[in-house]
Amino acid sequence: MKFETLLYEVKEGVAVITLNRPDRMNTLGGTMKPDLQAAILDLARHDDSVRSVILTGVGDRAFCAGADIKERAATQTHPADYYVKQKATHQLFRNIEEFEKPIIAAINGVALGGGLELALCCDIRIASSTARFGLPEGKIGVIPAAGGTQRLPRVVGVGVAKELIFTSEIIDAQRAHEIRLVNHVVAPEKLMDAAFEMAAKIARNAPLALRFAKQSINLGIEVGIEAGLEFERYAATMVVDSEDRKEGMKSFVEKRAPVFKGR
Fold this sequence. Notes:
Belongs to the enoyl-CoA hydratase/isomerase family. This is Enoyl-CoA hydratase-related protein. InterPro entries: ClpP/crotonase-like_dom_sf (IPR029045), Enoyl-CoA_hyd/isom_CS (IPR018376), Enoyl-CoA_hydra/iso (IPR001753), Enoyl-CoA_hydra_C (IPR014748). Keywords: Lyase. With about 260 residues, the protein is α/β, with parallel strands linked by helices. It has two domains: about 5-205, 2-enoyl-CoA Hydratase, Chain A, domain 1; about 205-255, Lyase 2-enoyl-coa Hydratase, Chain  A, domain 2. The protein has helices at about 30-45, 70-75, 80-95, 115-120, 150-155, 160-165, 175-180, 190-205, 205-220, 225-240, 245-255; strands at about 5-10, 15-20, 50-55, 60-65, 105, 110, 125-130, 130-135, 170, 185. The strands form two sheets. A six-stranded mixed sheet has the order 1-2-3-5-7-10, with helices on both faces. A four-stranded mixed sheet has the order 4-6-8-9. Strand 1 (about 5-10) and strand 2 form a beta hairpin. The radius of gyration is 19 Å and the shape is globular.
């Protein structure tokens, strides 16, 4: 499958998805959204060799600079039409957030607006020291509308999220790490190595267990503790008789590396 706006390859059990609109700072225009949907949900989901996904941007300037403002400025959208269209964006980002396999964002440059909102859908964020982050929508008279008002407070806390959104401030990678927006900051030339190292650590574990652990974490932060614990019990029950659990126990006793099959 070929894409107009991104590159897709599988390397060492990792699906590497590279946003590829360098002339437009890898903005979410053109066919970027349907391309992302197809790459993640059609290709990476159904490839059993893929244990995790790395999402990054081409070049060293931008991970994703958000919406393509030049594209949008040329069109006039009726509020009712926008409301329906934005639902599709919300669903795409929700699909990425809930994707069964771990997704690592390797943030190689600016992650602004929708680009930061996309990164927030990923499970782990590793940033180049040259990366920049922000939700500057207020500067052009709109609000973060691809989940930014919901996901950012869940990651950095309400007060910090309000400050970033209200001021439209662009912060550097070190500040992003301080507020726990990103997990790690590395030198630009080491970014993809760090992402693959993280993917390798993930790949050593049972994929079925990680799938249910991810679901349990994602659900748990949305509901009360009792509902979260109930789902955790369900998730643990779903893997208790799996081949992976049996292999994990057996390999531990035999003091060898496990061979997991995801079932």
